[in-house]
Amino acid sequence: MAAIRDESVRGEGVGRRVRPVPAVTRAVAILRLLGRSEEALGVHAIARALTLIPSTCLHILRVLVAEGLVAFDPETKRYRAGAGLLTIAKGVLRRPGFAELVQPDLDRLSRVHGVTAIGVEVVGLEHIVVVAISRSDHAVRLHVDIGSRFPALISASGRCIAAFGGHAWSAVERHFRALRWDRPPRRSAWRTEVEATRVKGYAVDEGNYIKGVTVIAAPVGAGAERVSHVVVVVGLTEQVRDIGVDRLARELSATARELSAKLGGH
Predict the structure, then answer these.
(1) What pTM does this model have?
(2) Is 62 exposed, middle or buried (0-12, 13-18, 19+ CB in 10 A)?
(3) pLDDT at 224 over 90
């Protein structure tokens, strides 16, 4: 992870700039690091991974331990994610929302077509977070789990966000330039595809993001005209062609519209 810089950042989901709070940003970075680490980490390993001053990292860790969000082993002098995070997560999971609504649709798409079906939450132009998934038994298996994060504008879901996110094109282009693809699309071609997505209501990425893999996505709006979530299907390009890109796109678009209505969107 890159060093945490003290600069203004865009507020997530509200489209305005807010002043960052470095201590909070660093605490969140530590929690994310410990959350995805398979083993406990020492303070120097954490500080090195996040480009933090060790003494600053230690002060934040002590607060997180005191709040029960991080556990500390006095024998090994190492830290791991604490049980207090589960309490917070359970509170979120108890509230019915997009993940609960989309799961039956993802299971159906995966079962009927043998594709991997995914539901993601949009966090501005920064990233998307996987909140629901239904895996297929076919050969293509993505390294993705609940909580996985990806750049917001990558692949077919990114075209949906660029088309329906309500963001200024200058900001969209700035984030687009930082993306990494197997077969990067030309910026002019990508913008044409974004405009087509606005018309069709869905987007297709055929081998740009991952060579040999086709991704189809449709936007979901919740209480506003801007996209809040995206439903996605992923399969080998040959497999998707056999099923029919248009067929999958129509089913996905219908699913997205139904979800938007359930969530109070348009």
Answers:
(1) 0.69
(2) middle
(3) no
